[in-house]
Automatic annotation (TrEMBL):
Domain of life: Bacteria
Protein name, per record: Radical SAM/SPASM domain protein, ACGX system
Domain Radical SAM core: 1-220
Keywords, sorted A to Z: 4Fe-4S, Iron, Iron-sulfur, Metal-binding, S-adenosyl-L-methionine
NCBIfam families reported for this sequence: rSAM_ACGX, rSAM_more_4Fe4S
Cofactor: [4Fe-4S] cluster
Entry keyword annotation includes Acetylation: no
Coiled coil: none
Length: 343
């Protein structure tokens, strides 16, 4: 059975917001906003399909930005996706969504539309911009009515960690189809997420309890335990068990970087992971992605280099978040700063 390979594709830097934790704007060093033209997007698309043909994978695109809907050729790209029957989701902002726009997205084949909630109203609007919180909740309805799966993602840091349980309640009340959270990756100016391992584990305990209560009551929201430290948590609670029938050197879960993911930004630069700031491995306008995958990407597949995880029995399933580890000192293989396990 073929496996999917995901491309996180940033087609433009144009955006209605200047989020404080955005990789593009957080360091105030973005001198110009980059954007692919239509020909470059077409070339990128077929480079990705060539990659999947070489490695016998099924392509899946996460189209994002900035806000991808602001790209003047956004609908032309979606038409290309639709003509080739390629599945895709969109990671974007709420501001330009209407019932008509969402129906059109559905007609072109959009499967999911991801929005962000990074706190309750005051905190979220501080992170993003005034009015963003209420607009996000309103537009979840547009997405749902169109038959697209609505996704809410929360970026957790020391600033909003205490608000996450309330964010979950808010997402459920808004009839969000999928909820997940991931941790803030520090920029070069910040070296800390503002959370201790114990504080983060306490959050997982609280969220796990809330998830189970909602599920027991028939809640239709799917709670995606995206952070790989959930594996460690469920290993400790007995919900996840390490299989004895495993092969040495095989990876069965955890971070997709180096396994089934690449990120492409508007300049054409290719990153092993967008959240790993120093992970550029090529340029889609100059390099064949199939070649990049077996050359430069090898630097992200040496699992014996994980300073802490290589000593742990969960190496093949967890590895925490190398992007968060890398944000601290640039070392992809450093210990996850929120991992509480002693090895």
């Amino acid at each position: 059975m073929k496996q999917y390979f995901s491309f996180q594709w940033h087609i433009t830097d144009e955006c209605d917001q200047r989020c404080k934790h955005c990789y593009i704007f957080s360091e105030n060093n973005c001198k110009k906003l980059d954007m692919m033209n239509l020909e470059q997007m077409q070339d990128t698309f077929y480079n990705c399909l060539d990659f999947c043909k070489v490695y016998d994978r099924l392509p899946y695109f996460y189209i994002t930005g900035g806000d991808p809907i602001l790209h003047p050729d956004f609908w032309s790209l979606l038409e290309l996706m639709n003509e080739n029957e390629i599945p895709f989701s969109i990671l974007g902002n709420p501001f330009h969504l209407t019932d008509d726009i969402c129906r059109k997205l559905k007609e072109y084949g959009c499967q999911k539309y991801q929005l962000s909630l990074d706190g309750m109203r005051e905190t979220h609007d501080w992170f993003r911009k005034p009015g963003s919180f209420d607009c996000t909740l309103e537009k979840i309805g547009c997405i749902n009515r169109a038959g697209i799966r609505s996704v809410v993602m929360t970026t957790v840091s020391g600033t909003n960690i205490k608000e996450v349980p309330d964010i979950i309640d808010t997402a459920v009340k808004a009839d969000v189809n999928v909820f997940a959270f991931a941790r803030y990756c520090p920029t070069s100016e910040e070296k800390d997420t503002g959370m201790t391992p114990q504080e983060y584990r306490k959050l997982l305990v609280a969220c796990d309890k809330k998830f189970k209560e909602y599920e027991a009551n028939g809640c239709q929201t799917y709670f995606n335990k995206k952070d790989h430290l959930w594996t460690l948590y469920e290993y400790e609670t007995g919900e996840f068990k390490v299989s004895e029938a495993i092969e040495d050197g095989m990876i069965y879960g955890g971070c997709n970087c180096g396994n089934c993911h690449l990120t492409i930004v508007p300049t054409g630069d290719v990153f092993a992971c967008r959240r790993v700031q120093n992970s550029k491995v090529g340029n889609v306008f100059e390099d064949r992605l199939a070649d990049v995958w077996i050359c430069e990407m090898e630097n992200y597949r040496d699992y014996t280099k994980f300073e802490k995880c290589s000593k742990c029995e969960l190496l093949a399933w967890c590895r925490g978040c190398p992007a968060v580890a890398s944000g601290k000192d640039g070392n992809f293989y450093a210990a996850d700063p929120q991992c509480w396990k002693e090895v």
